[in-house]
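Why does residue order matter? Because the sequence determines the fold. Keep that principle in mind as you read this record.
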Amino acid sequence: MALNILIVDDSTAIRKILIRVLRQTGLVIGEVFEARDGLEALEIVKNHPLNLVLSDINMPNMDGLSLLAELKASETWRNLPVVMITTEGSEEKVGQAIRLGSAAYIRKPFTAEQIQEKISAIL
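Structure:
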């Protein structure tokens, strides 16, 4: 089954790197959607079937933790796995992401192997 994945990051460069890394993992990738913040991500989630969300934490308009909270509070998207990928290293933020229901947490910079390992463990 091909995976439909949403990448949420305010950095275009990071989104492109993640797309390239996803293609290198050997996972069967279907559609990859991109959003610059949590608000754009919510619109994509509402309109497209997804298997996974990869989200940064620090973004304008709606940050990744707020997006995660919205998704986990929804009956419709509660089971959609969300992986936080961020430079945010504070234990407080990591703990908050885990409490909110993040499926995994990956620190930037990351490797293709880290992405594949985390995604494979989740799916």
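Strands lie at 3-8, 29-35, 52-55, 82-86, 104-107.
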